[in-house]
Amino acid sequence: MPSIRVPSALRSFTGGNSDVEVAASTVREALAELEHRYPGIGAKLLDHGAVKPFIRIFVGPDDIGGLSGLDTQLAERDEVAIVPAIAGGRDIPPVDRDA
Amino acid sequence: MIPQRATIVGAGGLGGPIALSLGAAGVELVIADHDEVELSNLHRQIQFTDKDLGQPKAERLAAQVVARGGRARGVTGAWTARSADALAADADLVIDASDDPATKFSVADWALAAGRCYVIAAALRYGGNVMVGAPGAACYRCLFEEPVEAPSCADAGVLGPVVGAIGGVAAAVGLALVRGDRSLAGSILVFEDLRRAVDPRIVRFAPRSGCPACARALVSPGAAPVRVAEVQ
Is the distance from CB of B187 to CB of B200 less than 8 angstroms? Predict the structure, then answer.
């Protein structure tokens, strides 16, 4: 089953899970499944059905922009990686919020 | 041998290890930062001590580089489109080590337009990204189109040691660039969680059709990368 690698900035939606397996044959279906299981995360990734400008999505090492976009086909063991633009941040408090 | 020059934008958690590493490697530095050292910085910006509190970060970091035998000049001020030429006119390489999305785009846009190599470093929570840019390769704006609504960076925070590790990677790829190795140009190194895995996902991205930064570039994406001397 394909899996989605969730970036740390969005793991508050997935209860801290970094990898989510999805029953999907395209990237679009995978993201729909992710939203179905973790409501709200889809709005962080897509805008009117298109990938937001500061988000890039890769299947393995390949940018879906160079493949078939959201219609890129997924194989059984493919890993979909979501890479957001990040810009640093403040300190993490002593209590680990991922814990 | 002509010394290599780099401008580092940001003298904080990322900029510290970058400046100390490149300075020790003989790269002449300009370090720009508008901020002053605060007590809350000290555990992750380990180039500073309590004696630096209230002092300009750029000047204190430059002094640390010089104290180790390197050559560096600190400039207290922000990188802007207006200040860029003064800060980086002589630079072979520009490294963004800021925590500001707009600054990252500004550094990348300027470097691309000026035909310079550049590195954009960012850290968040337990990981980070290092993007490598050079003339002729896909650019930062090809990767992320514009500096809007980056997911909860300011709220998410960053673990102290993570900035040291990401800064070290940025320095390593920066040093490779100034020495002519552009094998990672047009790539982003993604470190998801340094507590669990230190190997990055290295993804090479394609030039984006209609990218305004590439349209202004001296060398268009897809062209063979050229050395800085050839485009000046």
Answer: no
